[in-house]
């Protein structure tokens, strides 16, 4: 089986590539990535020399290039993760999100459809999406697979749009597809613009922790390796045309999570309890900031037998240890262009 994984040099993609390359030595795994600021081949050093792994540098928006790699390698399955993924960046530059997330996804769907010529046996297009397409919850309730789409940010609107295109290709052309919508991931190799790695990095460097609004927003956190295992399960056992929600069953109000992180960081850095928390700085809220995300993950549990395996306290300790031990990785990705972006976009909020 030849599997194309897009966005494999990013955060979640690198965990999916690693899992598939190690677990399925008989599969040929192709990692297609443009290597934007978020893509980093250092995320895959441990598997890059494996005989069943090939890296392809390219842009999912580039039709001629995508056609060419389909012709050359003849993929059977696609696990599509490549995307612009950060809500704050989508507020600054929505069109980049439309380009990669909407046009790029539709380009892949289109080339797959033409390449497979409706000979769909043992073929699958698997789109990795987000729970943010469902919009925002109040204090009660959970997102299920039948919750109506109601995206608010340019990021979630672009992901919702790409989900709709995936379903349109299933309904119109019979393309075999599956979609999963997952909650917030955390763990090693996450780019330090997202909450957890950003705050770990800032605490280490004694920089302010910019908490949006009052820190009342709630997210449902899932360890990234558990997400990769869910993707493996859905790729092999998911039903054609279906959607599966993936969640951590692990809701945290931002400020409570930040306080917990601060206290773990004080212990790890051997500083007085309360030192890191002094860096907490309440800043202007994110525009259109969704209040609460929480997932009902009973369908994937009941139908496919997946549930999160790691408890949050263990996952958080592992994650913090990883960032403290991998300072070279962290320094590398936070230098250069990113540092300029961070200084202009964040510290002036
Ligand atoms: P990420 O930003 O860390 O990685 C994205 C990867 O895609 C990078 O390697 C980047 O170089 C690549 N890429 C971007 N544009 C490309 C293009 N035009 N052509 C080819 N490659 C391109 O993102 P992530 O957090 O790993 O998210 C991966 C996927 O999972 C995304 O589709 C995202 O919407 C979805 N998702 C993320 C989360 C989360 O908590 N991070 C939760 C649910 C779903
Ligand atoms: P983030 O990691 O950007 O994920 P998402 O917006 O996709 O859920 O943010 C997680 C939560 O943390 C979200 O409610 C916004 C908040 N947040 C801050 O308060 N400060 C920050 O600097 C960042 C990056 C996020």
- CA radius of gyration is 20 Å
Corresponding CATH superfamily of the largest domain: NAD(P)-binding Rossmann-like Domain
Helical content, roughly? 40-55%
Number of helices: 12
Q: For the record, give the distance between the C-alpha atoms at the N and C termini, rounded to a whole number.
A: 49 Å
Largest pleated sheet:
7 strands, parallel
Ligands bound here?
Answer: nicotinamide-adenine-dinucleotide, thymidine-5'-diphosphate
User: Could you tell me the mean pLDDT?
Assistant: 95
Structural class of the secondary structure composition?
A: alpha/beta
The CATH first-level class of the largest domain comes to Alpha Beta
Number of domains: 2
Task: Please identify the oligomeric state.
Answer: single chain
Strand content: 15-25%
CATH architecture of the largest domain: 3-Layer(aba) Sandwich
> What is the number of E strands?
12
Output the CATH topology of the largest domain: Rossmann fold
**Major β-sheet strand ordering:** 3-2-1-4-5-6-10
In the predicted model, the low-confidence regions spanning at least 5 consecutive residues are none
């Amino acid at each position: 089986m030849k599997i194309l994984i897009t966005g494999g040099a990013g955060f979640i993609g690198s965990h999916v590539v690693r899992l598939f390359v190690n677990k399925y030595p008989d599969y040929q795994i192709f990692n297609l990535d443009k290597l934007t600021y978020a893509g980093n081949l250092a995320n895959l050093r441990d598997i890059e020399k494996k005989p069943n792994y090939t890296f392809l540098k390219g842009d999912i928006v580039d039709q001629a290039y995508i056609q060419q790699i389909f012709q050359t390698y003849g993929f059977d399955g696609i696990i599509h993760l490549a995307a612009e993924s950060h809500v704050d960046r989508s507020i600054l530059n929505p069109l980049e999100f439309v380009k990669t997330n909407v046009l790029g996804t539709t380009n892949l769907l289109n080339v797959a459809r033409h390449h497979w010529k409706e000979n769909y046996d043992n073929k699958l297009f698997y789109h990795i999406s987000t729970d943010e397409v469902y919009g925002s919850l109040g204090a009660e309730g959970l997102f299920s697979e039948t919750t109506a789409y109601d995206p608010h940010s340019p990021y979630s609107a672009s992901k919702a749009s790409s989900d709709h295109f995936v379903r349109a290709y299933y309904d119109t052309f019979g393309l075999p597809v599956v979609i999963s919508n997952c909650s917030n991931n955390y763990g090693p190799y996450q780019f330090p613009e997202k909450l957890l790695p950003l705050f770990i990095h800032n605490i280490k460097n004694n920089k302010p922790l910019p908490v949006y609004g009052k820190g009342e927003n709630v997210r449902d956190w899932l360890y990234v390796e558990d997400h990769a295992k869910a993707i493996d399960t859905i790729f092999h056992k998911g039903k054609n045309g279906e959607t599966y929600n993936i969640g951590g069953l692990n809701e945290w109000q931002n400020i409570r999570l930040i306080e917990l992180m601060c206290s773990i960081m004080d212990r790890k850095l051997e500083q007085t309890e309360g030192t890191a928390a002094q860096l907490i700085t309440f800043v202007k809220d994110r525009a259109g900031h969704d209040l609460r995300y929480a997932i009902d993950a009973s369908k994937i549990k009941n139908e496919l037998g997946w549930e999160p395996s790691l408890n949050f306290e263990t996952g958080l300790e592992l994650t913090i240890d990883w960032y403290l031990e991998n300072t070279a990785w962290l320094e590398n990705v936070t230098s250069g262009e990113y540092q300029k972006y961070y200084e202009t976009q964040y510290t002036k909020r």
